[in-house]
Amino acid sequence: CEILSSLPLQMSLYFNVYFFPFWWLITVAILFLKYPVLSDYYKFILVTIMILVSLTELIRLYLGYVGNLLEKVPELAGFWLLTLLPQLPIILFLLFNEGLKIHSLERAVHIIFAAFLSFQAAAAFFTLRRMVNTLAARFRLTEFHRLQEQRPVPGAPSLATGS
């Protein structure tokens, strides 16, 4: 029974759980300060992004913990997809869009968060690949042993010969 969980991924998830509230507070505080000088569509975009990131991050971290620690492929795949699709592009948008009037502290926390997401996407991919390959090999071995048990042994009496 080989352990398939990834220690680097788990450590990254652990630190991300503590970093996310810090990131959220810094981002909301700076959004509150720069809100009056933003254009209307950037105001709408930033509020929508904060709501989306907050909800997605809670689900993403839960799926990462369950998928990695309990070695569950669907949960880890969900974590990987939530990392790649909504989270990483949103953080990159917040990091590189100059129309948002990015503050230096905000840029720093976005860089750290983007580094977490990038590392977790890569680590989850390799962990997921290892889990799927191992589970597929276990399935093939189980099927092989089941077929071996069903095959008649040469020289043994069988029902077809009437012995």
Automatic annotation (TrEMBL):
Recorded superkingdom: Eukaryota
Entry keyword Plastid: no
Name by which UniProt lists this protein: TMM17 protein
Location(s) in or outside the cell: Cell projection, Cilium membrane
Transmembrane annotation, as ranges: 13-32, 44-65, 77-96, 108-128
Keywords: Cell membrane, Cell projection, Cilium, Cilium biogenesis/degradation, Membrane, Transmembrane, Transmembrane helix
Gene Ontology cellular-component annotations: ciliary membrane; ciliary transition zone
The organism of origin for this protein: Elachura formosa (spotted wren-babbler)
Function according to Swiss-Prot or TrEMBL: Transmembrane component of the tectonic-like complex, a complex localized at the transition zone of primary cilia and acting as a barrier that prevents diffusion of transmembrane proteins between the cilia and plasma membranes. Required for ciliogenesis and sonic hedgehog/SHH signaling.
Family under the similarity heading: Belongs to the TMEM17 family.
GO biological process: non-motile cilium assembly
Subunit structure: Part of the tectonic-like complex (also named B9 complex).
Topological category with respect to the lipid bilayer: Multi-pass membrane protein
A Pfam family per the record: Transmemb_17
